[in-house]
TrEMBL record:
Protein name: ABC transporter permease
Pfam families per record: MlaE
InterPro entries reported for this sequence: Permease_MalE (IPR030802)
PANTHER family found in the cross-reference section: ABC TRANSPORTER PERMEASE PROTEIN-RELATED (PTHR30188), PROTEIN TRIGALACTOSYLDIACYLGLYCEROL 1, CHLOROPLASTIC (PTHR30188:SF4)
The UniProt record lists the keyword Repressor: no
TM helices/strands, residue ranges: 40-62, 138-163, 183-208, 229-250
Keywords: Membrane, Transmembrane, Transmembrane helix
Source species, domain of life: Bacteria
Length: 254
């Protein structure tokens, strides 16, 4: 019973994701919806990203600054802040915001279409609802995830600069001079790849819960909550796997 309760929903999620990804080549059919969804997800997540990234960079700078000050290595704070933001903080924060804000809206939208029987109506008209609704949302969330990841890095560096340079007295040259000391090109590539994958996961879970939610407003509400939780858990698991592979293939610079 437990295996059926876990494997059946997992199979449905994988089937919807693969079917939505399979028709990605037919760009003309979903381009308009893709642009609209990109604008919507970016609109609901940009401001929260800024509000989260600034204190995140400041918190990392404060915590690291207190430690490195004891050994007289304050100039290494910038490198530590940038390393943490690029490799771990930025893609995770972008994914959680997409799943919490954009994913909730996607689930409620598709769930509302389901309880109004719009998905069945599409099938009657010969339109595959997965190709029509899921494919553009998968690509939109992935694209916005990469864009938000870059925005979080910039905002986090600005927050770290304020707390480390303005508040702690480290010179700007020291902060920015060592900012890339611990980074490699492979770190940035892995980060953008993770951001793309995490956005894809968040959108896939949101679409899956919306298309399989129970009928009624309460069913849509429960699906929204479940989508946010499941997406967060899957993102954390995917982050562990991808980070482990990245560190094994491209060891960090010391």
């Amino acid at each position: 019973m437990l295996g059926k309760a876990v494997l059946a929903p997992a199979g449905t999620l994988i089937a919807i994701s693969l079917e939505g990804f399979r028709k990605s080549w037919d760009v003309r059919r979903w381009w308009g919806e893709y642009v609209e969804q990109c604008w919507f997800i970016a609109r609901v997540t940009t401001l929260p990203v800024m509000l989260i990234a600034l204190p995140l960079g400041g918190t990392i700078a404060l915590q690291v600054g207190q430690i490195v000050r004891q050994i007289g290595a304050e100039s290494g704070t910038g490198a530590t802040v940038v390393q943490a933001l690029v490799t771990q903080v930025a893609p995770m924060a972008a994914a959680l915001l997409i799943s919490g804000a954009g994913g909730s809206a996607i689930t409620s939208d598709i769930g509302s279409r389901r309880i109004r029987d719009e998905l069945d109506a599409m099938e009657v008209l010969g339109i595959n609802p997965v190709h029509r609704l899921v494919t553009p949302r998968l690509w939109a969330a992935s694209t916005v995830g990469v864009m938000l990841c870059s925005l979080i890095i910039l905002a986090g560096i600005a927050g770290g600069f304020f707390f480390n340079v303005v508040r702690e007295g480290v010179t700007p040259g020291s902060y920015f001079g060592d900012a890339t000391a611990l980074l490699q090109l492979s770190d940035l590539i892995a980060t953008l790849f993770k951001a793309w994958i995490f956005g894809f996961i968040a959108a896939a879970v949101a679409c899956w819960k919306g298309m399989t939610c129970p009928y009624g407003p309460s069913g849509v509400g429960r699906a929204v909550n479940q989508a946010a939780v499941i997406a967060a858990l899957l993102v954390f698991a995917a982050n562990y796997v991808i980070s482990t592979l990245a560190y094994s293939l491209f060891p960090p610079r010391i």
